[in-house]
Amino acid sequence: MSTLARCVFVSLILLIMHPRLYADSALPERGVDVIFRGVISEIGKASFPDVPEPSKAIIVTVHDVISKAPLVHLAPNDRITVQVKNISRFKVGDEVVFFATGWIVGQGLAVKEVHHSTLPSDQMESVGSVDVNIKQQLGKQKDQALLHRINSARLAFVGRVLSVKPAPEDVANESFEADSSHSYESEHDPEWKDALVSITNLLKGKTNTQEVVVRFPGSPDIAWRNAPKLREGQEATFIFAKGQEPSAATTFAYGQGQLPTYTAPSQQEVLGKDVGDHLLQLLSK
Amino acid sequence: MHIARRMKSKATIAVVLAAFLCAAGVSGYVYWETHHQPNEDTSVNVDKGDIQTDTGTSNTSKPVAKIPGTLVVDMIPADISDEENSDSEPFLAVNPENSAVMAASAFTPNPYGPDSGLAPIFVSSDSGKTWNLRNTVPSTLMTADMTETAAAQKRLFAAILAHKTFQDIQKKRPVEYRELSSNDVSGLGVMAVTGSRFRVDQPWITRFAKDGVENIFVGSNDFAGRGGHTATLEISSDSGKTFKTIRLETRRTALQDGPSVRTAIANDGTIYVAYFGWRKRNAAIRNSDVVVLRDDHSAAGAKTFTDLKGTDGLPGYVVDNVNIPFNPFVPVLGQERVGSTLSLAVDPNNSGTIYIAWGDQVGDGDIYSVHVRRSTDRGQSWSGDLRRLTNATCAALAINNKGTVGLLYQQVIGTGHSSRWVTHLEQSLDGFVTVRDAVLSTAPADKPDWGGNLPYIGDYNYLLAIGREFRGVFSANNYPDYDDFPNGVKYLRNADFGSKRLLDPTGTKQVQISIDPYYFSVPSI
């Protein structure tokens, strides 16, 4: 989550909830990995051994998990340790929404507080709607981030991969940090490949051809573990930002330089087909 | 039959004895005392009760009891029991003031996701019995190389290749070399970045303390080295605050050196460093010198690492010239790539005795072979092969205060669906004439499928001599079968060994097998 996105996100949360809830709120300084609501069970303790400085931590019994990564197992009634910024602000029995950064996974979960909001006891009947609002805002934030990317894109489309070839020899082994004199050999080289992609639905920008070449790192190395790996028949949404201009024509693996070639080194450029379908809905509103 | 003819009588007796015991239903033997003839090809493979011998075997083996006190632990914590990641290439650091506290790394992603820009490190405070993952490493989601070393006063130093943000990746810079330090090995806070740059591969960190100051060494293949002299050592003599760069290579290279640069430090301040000096490139083979340098003065002088010279008068003794298969994008050995296996260890109390292990291709039908050699005169002359391990990789050496040498390695035996990665810890007090071999894991080598992800188990693993123990880490298939762990195993993640299934944290859903990091400790002989 970028700093701008985090600021927008927290601002939206502040707007939709009662101002009293946020009298002591502050903008997150770092990424928020997990959002949950719960009641403070113990103060100055941790829910499992090996949490450093448990005197700075509290134990929260979770009531609702609002947002988390799939691999993190957190559910209602779980006890989670939160290292808080100022322990004097909390007391046992407080109902609190935590925006937190993931810290420890082991015999339990521990997170570090980025931001919190204490729910007044006279508004406990509305806590469910608070959770719903936050989830809705998370969805809206995601949509806004997508729309922002589309607005700033040079070219965006839904397409189908027709074929994949190694990039021409003069660029296939081009190191990501190539020296001008020669290309060094590294386990972390990208091993560029070229995918011929047929545009099935243009979302943004112009192109003179129905097909484009998308160059992506074909390397199996750990440095590119999370890079897009295009394969024949794959349908995806492609977004290329302004500044990601198509490269020079002479080195294309397809079309003798007649097809524009865009580079997709990260998952930012290649998203699921469902994202494109969702974007079409958003753009039609 | 050809192999059998080459076996000596004692080895034959041992094999027959083992076969008899297996046939009689005797199981549970887990290590072998092996008598080798130095300078001959020797290896013993243990595969679920069968002894197999490979090319050039010449040894005597007898099964003995399980090594008491051995600990093998699958380090993946219970709370992420449903992870199916390839957690390869592990490394280990032990707090020198409290050996119960350790930090370890692997290619393990942040379970909480990428938003924090942090990667996790494993931490144990109970001598490795349990491990937690702590998100304290400044690298988005995971690292692309990481080595770490623990120092006095709970400090932890690391050298990593950090995964970068999307903006950097779009500039075709997916990883950045970073030097890190922390005041708390147990993962209290995010590690500080004390230095960074691009165009560096396989950073490898070691340390020693002198007069209360931490001296940090980071070997790497630094492409900023001019004239193809890329084998590099970064040296800090102020506890990691600043580093000076030493180019190790002095000879002509094939435009660059190999990825691995390794250091070994004796208690008297003698420092050895080894690297692969690439001399010629031929398709997927890199003809390479195995070079060892020495500094007798803690690398504190104006001219460093010039105390050991080759026959050509240049710094660095060439132990051998070898052919190394190097295609980092193709799995060739048990679904693993090869080409950078290199390890070095010095007797801490006798800096004249040093061992080296490296991987190359001999050309007798091997895919990749590990060689172990020794010098007893400060690197001026070297033995022949004390061990040659066919189709093995990830060799790691360590020597304890008693002079016992530990050799960790992972070897593929069998083919196809019957192939296995066998992880050994060998110990010897007599230059591998006699060996005590603890088999730590015999995992299937064809599962899980490599899935387009390399390294499969790692370009390296790690071994340390800590008091009267050898401690180390390796990665292997996590199929929950006690037969695959002859010295026993403890899983922190949820697994049902009865039905041989991995389970998610709730115990309700089956999880696919994957590559996990394992910690082990074995009492020394």
Descriptive keywords:
heterodimer, A: 285 residues, OB fold (Dihydrolipoamide Acetyltransferase, E2P), five-stranded mixed barrel, 4 helices, 11 strands, elongated, B: 525 residues, mainly beta, six-stranded antiparallel sheet
Could you characterize the architecture of this molecule?
The complex is a heterodimer of chains A (285) and B (525). Chain A is of the alpha+beta class. Chain A has helices spanning 3-16, 127-151, 169-172, 273-284; strands at 34-43, 57-67, 79-83, 95-105, 109-119, 153-166, 192-204, 211-217, 235-241, 261-263, 270-272. Chain A folds into 2 domains: 3-131, Beta Barrel (OB fold (Dihydrolipoamide Acetyltransferase, E2P)), CATH 2.40.50; 149-178 and 188-284, OB fold (Dihydrolipoamide Acetyltransferase, E2P) (Beta Barrel), CATH 2.40.50. In chain A, a hairpin with a 6-residue loop joins β7 (192-204) and β8. Chain B is mostly beta strands and 525 residues long. Chain B has 3 helices and 36 strands. Chain B has helices at residues 2-6, 9-23, 166-170, and strands at 31-36, 45-47, 50-52, 59-64, 71-74, 91-94, 102-105, 119-124, 132-137, 143-150, 156-163, 175-182, 192-197, 200-210, 213-222, 231-236, 244-247, 261-265, 271-282, 285-295, 317-325, 342-347, 350-360, 369-375, 387-390, 392-399, 405-413, 420-428, 434-444, 462-466, 469-477, 490-491, 495-496, 501-503, 510-511, 515-523. A 6-stranded antiparallel β-sheet of chain B has the order 4-1-29-28-27-26. Chain B has a 5-stranded mixed β-sheet with strand order 30-31-36-5-32, with no helix packed on it. Chain B is globular. Mean pLDDT of chain B is 88; it is low at 1-32 and 38-65. Classes of the chains: A alpha+beta (285), B mainly beta (525). At the A-B interface, β4 of A face β9 and α3 of B. β4 (95-105) of chain A pairs antiparallel with β9 (132-137) of chain B, so a sheet runs across the interface.
